[in-house]
Here is the input.
Amino acid sequence: MELSERKLKIMQAIIKTYLETGEPVGSRTISKYSDLSLSSATIRNEMSDLEEMGYIVQPHTSAGRIPTDKGYRLYVDTMMEGKEQEVLDLKEELRAKADRMDTLLKSVAKLLANQTNYATMVSGPQYKSKRVKFIQLTEVDESHLLTIVVLDGNVVKNEMIKITESVDVETVAKLNFLLNTALNGLDVSEMNLAIIQQIKEQAGGYNSIIDAVLNVVGNALTQDDDFEVYTSGAKNILNYPELADKENMVQLLDTFEEKKLISKWDEPVNETGDENHAIQVYIGNETQVDSMKDCSMVTATYKINEGVYGKIGIVGPKRMDYDKVVATLESLMKELDDIFKEKST
Amino acid sequence: MELSERKLKIMQAIIKTYLETGEPVGSRTISKYSDLSLSSATIRNEMSDLEEMGYIVQPHTSAGRIPTDKGYRLYVDTMMEGKEQEVLDLKEELRAKADRMDTLLKSVAKLLANQTNYATMVSGPQYKSKRVKFIQLTEVDESHLLTIVVLDGNVVKNEMIKITESVDVETVAKLNFLLNTALNGLDVSEMNLAIIQQIKEQAGGYNSIIDAVLNVVGNALTQDDDFEVYTSGAKNILNYPELADKENMVQLLDTFEEKKLISKWDEPVNETGDENHAIQVYIGNETQVDSMKDCSMVTATYKINEGVYGKIGIVGPKRMDYDKVVATLESLMKELDDIFKEKST
DNA sequence: TGTTAGCACTCCAAACGAAAGAGTGCTAAC
DNA sequence: GTTAGCACTCTTTCGTTTGGAGTGCTAACA
Here is the structure.
């Protein structure tokens, strides 16, 4: 069966009404709906067709219709009317936080949750290729050495190393020199045993320190546990009765707390390169997460530098206000672009 | 009226039963309760007294009784029978995480939530007096200086400073020397304008860098925003019907997400010095937080060093299993003591 | 041939009422 | 001081009823 112009219009009317009310929408409601002047009976016939085509369903006989995932998808793909972008008044607030990435992202999560009344997840920046830019060893007191590792993109990691006996200044300088000449510019796969052996030979007698430092370097290069995810607004989900039953709620909260969605975020960002921040909409099972089968998620990707990116996700009921969410996200992304640009210049 | 031996026993029976069932408990239930062989009628008389004294209430006439906050307090203060401590099998898991404080605390929150089936909050370590131990400036590349500030207790903070033109190695060394001689050992109140002026004079021409460094130092000393709080197990609260109504739930989740409880944690720890980790029980409104009026919270304090401490809190319904929670916490605290001891030696 | 009015039918949700059950307070007897 | 007994209260549960919303179908209409 063909999707006639009129059917499209009816679909749009159904979805719009349902987004607002959350109640199954009946033929009479649509009939009264401005544009098309058709009787409820005609609408009924069309709705019957649309149901057969899989765009809407009845929760039970003699109830109105609600959109299926396929119906939402149709709406998002072809009927969403890009709202003029909200002028977000976040600049002030965000910029105040901009000096520290973690607080910035926390604020983003929070502001976005307040703004949209949905739940949000923001993942911290991911670094694609990690190379050592620079290593520094410093004696803090007679039993502690501080190891600082600066990675590509000026990511700084530090860790204390315990030492059993004090090391003199020259030795520290020597070790610093050794480590830097040997390791700078390498990524984790390039630090092979040969190089390590070479360092140890030249270091002469400070093997335990070298080991400890290499350990720190290794951690810095591989550890992903500072792959932080900031969430906010979980409580907002409770406002949507269709999600608020206990069963589902426990699972949703769990998904949120455990940030399980994130595993799915690892997928390589398809660098189609458009300036559109790759905003994507996942409806119901499209999220690939079971507990989210009654939710939708809208994600966007922010980019700090080449190869350094993170994601922002907004989670709400399927009947979320896609227009608004997408517009808000687009606006926010521009904001973030500006902030990152300022920071890097 | 006096709290006779018998009344105490009845109270205990009421509370224990209520902790298990969560239902108002009637006189007949208590009458059948092993120890005391009294008829339900007698129990009724006693219960009537206990109600008058404010230890229990009826949700409505002709319902059983439930404990009031005062009743719970009586139980916690005088009737709790210290369970033999649970042997927690957390050692392995915790030690694996022990090398990084933040992951360690996250694990603590999570394990504790799983173990108890309540919600948990763990606050990161607080440093009471902050002094600069050591400052290091390093040139990372031609437009970035890395400032590292080590505080008392080997807390490390770092921040990048942007510079407009490259600085040569000797200058960096000189600035390092200047900063360290001037600032080491000082706390934030001692860094007055006189000292700052003196540094600037001696630095000669690098005022903007000095300013930037001082800014970083100031942040390091005052910023409390790495006063992190880790939460876990919020979903567990949903399992207790008396808390799971929407109204309350939204507020509780909010309290949790915003970590609002924490503001109350700032109170000076009363260093009564016992080795008992200052385990405290807050019942209902004793938490001082409105949304928690139907909850109880048990907190413990862990100490990493002198003056470096943090708190662990377990939040559950008023009818939480206080015995178990306290025992679990005690056991955990010993575990943590061990871990911290190992780390610092 | 497409549109509409009308009607019978279905199903849910809210309202109502009856009945059961749990528990109390009081009185009188032990 | 303790207990048995009884009347009373209040909640919970369950089935019944009723109203309304909405559909599908049929027949009439343009």
Summary: Chain B touches chain A through 31 residues (CB under 8 Å). The radius of gyration of chain B is 27 Å. The first strand of chain B starts at residue 56 and ends at 57.
